Amino acid sequence: MRMYDLIMKKRDGGTFTKDEIDFIISSYTKDYIPDYQMSALLMAIYFNGMTNEETANLTMAMAHSGDVLDLSEIKGIKVDKHSTGGVADTTTLVLAPLVAACGAPVAKMSGRGLGHTGGTIDKLESIPGMRVELSEREFIDNVNKHGIAVVGQSSNLTPADKKLYALRDVTATVDSIPLIASSIMSKKIASGADGIVLDVKVGRGAFMKDIESAKKLANLMVEIGNSVGRKTVAHVTNMDEPLGLAIGNSLEVVEAIDVLKGNGSKDLLDVCMVLGADMLTIAGVAKDTDEAKEMLKEALTSGKALDKFKEFISAQGGDARIVDDISLLPQAKFVESWCAEEDLYIKDLYALDLGLIAMKLGAGRSTKEDSIDLSVGIMLGGKIGDIVRKGDPIATIYANDRDKLEWALNEIKKFIIITDEYVERPQLIYM
Ligand code: URA
Ligand code: CA
């Protein structure tokens, strides 16, 4: 097989066989195919697409390009949840202990943040002592003993995707639905999940900008997952505004604790209930999503989910006292609010721009190598459609640098739109 012929085949609208896809992925992983040829192929795929069968074959070829986790020693059906990335998406911090408290094993690999999107692993690292790198042995033992473990991705997981993603990033070929679907699903499959619950984000703060494309991506990933024997379901949720009220690492840990205590932001809780119900159902812990939702509610009101969060933190070396004393989390030196001068409504919140402001405060990375400040970020005083009362904060900035604080206090006013007229709450869950 020659890469030249394969590029021409896709350029002319052809369909690859499984052998051809296996050849491309294994050769590229071993550096036998130069980036310029792979770039040309990616662009041909971008324009001519792939059939669902090609996409499934590409997914499996990438999944097997490196380590594939064997979680068969963990009792029960392991269901993973994945979000396609958004701003202030705090769901994993809530869902992992919540679902584990209901009896479904959670063996999760999560990522770090990049750009305007945060990462669960960074958020967990704001808990003093928390270890996010466990050996495979510890990972499996923790799940068997505590029902939960969340770790960073092992370094040799889907190397083909790592290389391809970096190349797509610089060749304007990221936003191709078959390439996104195979990239995401390959990682989930390599990390050993029996079942997969997907949260495809759509809107200004997400990859997918329109609902139709997001549904297409969601349906394609469901088809791939199910076709390779992983029970998969997907939802499409709103990422025009940030999820929840907190944007920033330790701020989001506090937000998760609030939700686990039965308070917290309703949109965050609603997304967690929908995703959690599917996780419990696929795991076979609940017979349907109605029963699952009752179980989730009970775990919240009884305090079992919060106890599981403490157990999870302790099991990975973290200081579980943070749950009752949030002052043990990293604290920003400067905290200042933009307050309402009269009763008003939040008319709009621009997720992408607010995520970028939080990043520039230090909460996120502009390149993979950047270090981050776990204590900084933005707390919103309300979501679109909420009332903020006179004197209450519309938003609060947490910073460790006076200049950045002043800058952010000004900047957020461009991206948090207020009005004195009634504003309807936007739809949160589209599918
Ligand atoms: N997230 C991924 O992991 N891969 C993509 O291609 C896009 C989003
Ligand atoms: Ca949040």
UniProtKB/TrEMBL annotation:
Specify whether Iron is a keyword of the entry: no
Q: Which GO terms describe its cellular component?
A: cytosol
Q: Which reaction does it catalyse?
A: 2'-deoxyuridine + phosphate = 2-deoxy-alpha-D-ribose 1-phosphate + uracil; uridine + phosphate = alpha-D-ribose 1-phosphate + uracil; thymidine + phosphate = 2-deoxy-alpha-D-ribose 1-phosphate + thymine
Per the record, the domain of life is Bacteria
**Ion transport among the record's keywords?**
no
* GO molecular function terms noted in the UniProt entry: 1,4-alpha-oligoglucan phosphorylase activity; deoxyuridine phosphorylase activity; thymidine phosphorylase activity; uridine phosphorylase activity
E.C. number(s) listed in UniProt: 2.4.2.2
Question: What keywords does the record list, in alphabetical order?
Answer: Glycosyltransferase, Transferase
Top EC class per UniProt? transferase
Q: Where is the Pyrimidine nucleoside phosphorylase C-terminal domain?
A: 345-418
SUBUNIT field: Homodimer.
What's the family?
Answer: Belongs to the thymidine/pyrimidine-nucleoside phosphorylase family.
Q: What is this protein called?
A: Pyrimidine-nucleoside phosphorylase
